[in-house]
């Protein structure tokens, strides 16, 4: 039990008392860079929680090991990508047997991608990670002349990346070291300088700098500074290397500024001034820009074009019109084709448009539910793009696709070394009736021999925020549950864009409660149709999906046999009231601004999981946290667990696992991450009683 130190907070004439506010370290910004300075009392509490969790899960140690070995056995240890062509080389990545981190390499452009003898090693992730508790690579980006590469790493989990410059011929790093970046950089065409974003003291990417190789970071030129703390910022480049893009956005408004690479000392030029609720993104097509936007009430987005010489909004001309129910997600342009990824009826598809004739066609797929990934190409003058395809039963397949001839070439199929027979499994898409009559899609995976009489345990996963759609893709880890008789289910609830932009809009701000009710309706439907029973449903969600877990625990604890909440965003009201936290101002358009608006304060207060804990019998709950997590700070799940344990009227265990050497994504290595999944699944198996 955590110590109680009441702290009162009054807003809009409403006073709340928080007994566990002391768990928020006052020096959290500095602690993210040096965890040794964490307040000893807070550290002692977190370590006590970890000890309690270890004791409670001690009887699953053998199961965790078994699950881990199963999951590891489904991963090809020495796997490698199919290199992508760019100039004189093709660039790829690979793992070695037993390795946790990727190795980046290149081969001659037309070399055999499977011939390891011709690979030139550029960066060995395992070597760079040696001796570090946490290590996450930000990849490596080569200059146009293929002489140098920018690579970045985060060795604390706090998402402050250090950038280094590597001589790709010698394999040695130059003296340049750039600290506190957002990760990655964009090369200038001459390969002598690059652009990057810097994180400020509140962990926000607020400044774009221009770094010249060989100069100290202190000499870098400030290219643009975003003064509004409510906006994220990123920097990118065009395939033609004509422009540097500065992308400024929150969750519903965006703005672009362009810097011509013909004059790197110039000031970036505004394309279209930000307007509340209007989003746009750009890609270059030679003499035109293609602009994906929701302007003029195009809720599901349309594609416009404008001259490169005058890209302002007054010159935007419609090319691909807005079609309600057809959500355009992203777009790319190449010399002869414009392509975009869209979603209709909950399923993605890739559209190709010939830029000369205007003729359009789709890349078709047959399964009932599936997932697509669109990689495009690294070169502008090409007819060949790359995409990936998978389903809940079909391992990932990588294709090259010729947009002119429409020929599809299978490059690689994901190997499952321990074996996988798709015919042993069934995947289905069912629909749950929500409280207001909406149909909520639910994707299911289970073995053919699983009894559908209500006796099967079920892991029901949900997210439902920021417009993120959870794909119905192949997942080797969940097979360990499915092979034990579980039904694995994904609830495609409001807050995502699974059924178009309206589906997202109906799960945010004052309508946020729809997200939670949709998830509960999904559980109800699975029980009604005999897939499982309430006591056999283990709910799982992470981050904003962890908020979902906290909300359904308060709203319908009797309908879940257990809950797994990974890095859960559960202290919503306090976080949205703290404008010093990294994500708070940019998140106000998603949740509301309780500082300025009493109405929005009331919305959030009505569902915020931490604020709505009451005297009721909560099911077994497992919360997972990362000490250096800048997205969902460690004190949110810590406070939540403390208050749950104080108020529950039942005897079910409420556990907290804090990773003292990681952030939002947990451990960084590919097998280290599997250890965490095995731990979560061991909790699910234990709760379901099928060990």
Automatic annotation (TrEMBL):
**Which GO biological-process labels does this protein carry?**
proteolysis
Which residues belong to any copy of the Peptidase S9 prolyl oligopeptidase catalytic domain? 478-689
Residues covered by the Peptidase S9A N-terminal domain: 7-413
Q: Name the UniProt key words of this record, in alphabetical order.
A: Hydrolase, Protease, Serine protease
Q: Which GO terms describe its molecular function?
A: serine-type endopeptidase activity
Q: Does the keyword Hydrolase apply?
A: yes
Question: What InterPro entries does the entry give?
Answer: AB_hydrolase_fold, Pept_S9A_N, Peptidase_S9_cat, Peptidase_S9A, Serine_Peptidase_S9A
The similarity comment for this entry is: Belongs to the peptidase S9A family.
Provide the protein name.
Answer: Peptidase S9
Species lineage = Bacteria, Pseudomonadati, Pseudomonadota, Alphaproteobacteria, Hyphomicrobiales
């Amino acid at each position: 039990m955590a110590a109680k130190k009441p702290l009162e907070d009054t807003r809009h004439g409403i006073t709340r008392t928080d007994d566990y506010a002391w768990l928020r370290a006052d020096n959290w910004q500095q602690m993210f860079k040096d965890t040794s300075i964490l307040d000893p009392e807070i550290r002692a509490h977190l370590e006590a929680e970890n000890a309690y969790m270890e004791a409670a899960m001690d009887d699953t140690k053998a199961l965790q090991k078994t699950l881990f070995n199963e999951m590891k056995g489904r991963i090809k240890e020495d796997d490698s990508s199919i290199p992508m062509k760019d100039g004189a080389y093709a660039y790829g990545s690979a793992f070695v047997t037993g390795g946790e981190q990727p190795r980046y390499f290149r081969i001659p452009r037309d070399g055999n991608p499977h011939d390891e003898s011709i690979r030139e090693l550029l960066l060995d992730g395992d070597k760079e990670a040696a001796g570090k508790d946490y290590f996450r690579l930000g990849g490596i980006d080569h200059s146009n002349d293929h002489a140098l590469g920018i690579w970045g790493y985060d060795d604390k989990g706090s998402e402050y990346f250090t950038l280094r410059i590597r001589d790709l011929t010698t394999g040695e790093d130059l003296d340049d070291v750039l600290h506190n970046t957002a990760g990655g950089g964009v090369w200038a065409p001459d390969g002598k300088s690059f652009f990057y974003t810097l994180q400020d003291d509140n962990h926000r990417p607020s400044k774009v700098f221009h770094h010249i190789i060989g100069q100290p970071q202190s000499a870098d030129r400030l290219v643009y500074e975003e003064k509004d703390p409510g906006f994220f910022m990123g920097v990118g480049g065009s395939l033609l290397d004509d422009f540097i893009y500065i992308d400024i956005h929150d969750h519903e408004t965006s703005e672009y500024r362009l810097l011509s690479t013909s004059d790197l000392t110039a000031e970036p030029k505004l394309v279209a001034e930000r307007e509340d609720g209007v989003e746009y993104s750009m890609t270059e097509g030679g003499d035109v820009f293609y602009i994906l936007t929701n302007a003029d009430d195009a809720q599901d987005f349309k594609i416009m074009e404008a001259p490169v010489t005058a890209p302002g909004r007054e010159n935007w001309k419609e090319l691909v019109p807005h079609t309600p129910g057809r959500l355009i997600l992203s777009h790319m342009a190449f010399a002869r084709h414009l392509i975009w990824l869209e979603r209709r009826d909950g399923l993605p598809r890739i559209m190709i448009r010939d830029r000369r004739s205007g003729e359009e066609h789709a890349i078709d797929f047959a399964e009932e539910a599936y997932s697509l990934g669109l990689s495009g190409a690294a070169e502008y003058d090409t007819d060949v793009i790359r995409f990936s395809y998978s389903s809940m039963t079909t391992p990932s397949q990588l294709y090259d696709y010729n947009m002119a001839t429409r020929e599809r070439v299978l490059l690689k199929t994901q190997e499952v070394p321990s074996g996988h027979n798709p015919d042993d499994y069934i995947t289905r898409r069912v629909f749950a009736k929500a409280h207001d009559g909406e149909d909520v899609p639910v994707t299911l995976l289970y073995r053919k021999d699983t009894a559908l009489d209500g006796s099967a345990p079920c892991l029901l996963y949900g997210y439902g925020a920021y417009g993120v759609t959870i794909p119905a893709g192949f997942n080797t880890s969940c097979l360990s549950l499915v092979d034990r008789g579980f039904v694995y289910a994904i609830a495609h609830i409001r807050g995502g864009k699974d059924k178009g932009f309206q589906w997202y809009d109906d799960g945010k701000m004052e309508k946020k409660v729809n997200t939670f009710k949709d998830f509960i309706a999904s559980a109800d439907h699975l029980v009604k149709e005999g897939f499982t029973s309430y006591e056999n449903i283990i709910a799982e969600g992470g981050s904003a999906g962890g908020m979902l877990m906290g909300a359904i625990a308060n709203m319908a604890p009797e309908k879940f046999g257990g809950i797994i909440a990974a890095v859960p965003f559960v202290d919503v009201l306090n976080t949205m009231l703290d404008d010093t936290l990294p994500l708070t101002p940019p998140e106000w358009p998603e949740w509301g601004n309780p500082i300025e608006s009493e109405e929005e304060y009331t919305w959030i207060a009505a569902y915020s999981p931490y604020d709505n804990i009451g005297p009721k019998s909560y099911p077994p709950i497992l919360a997972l946290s990362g000490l250096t997590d800048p997205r969902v700070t460690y004190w949110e799940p810590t406070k939540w667990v403390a208050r749950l344990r104080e108020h529950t009227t039942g005897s079910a265990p409420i556990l907290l696992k804090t990773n003292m050497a990681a952030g939002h994504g947990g451990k960084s290595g590919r097998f280290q991450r599997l250890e965490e999944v095995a731990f979560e699944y061991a909790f699910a198996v234990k709760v379901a009683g099928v060990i």
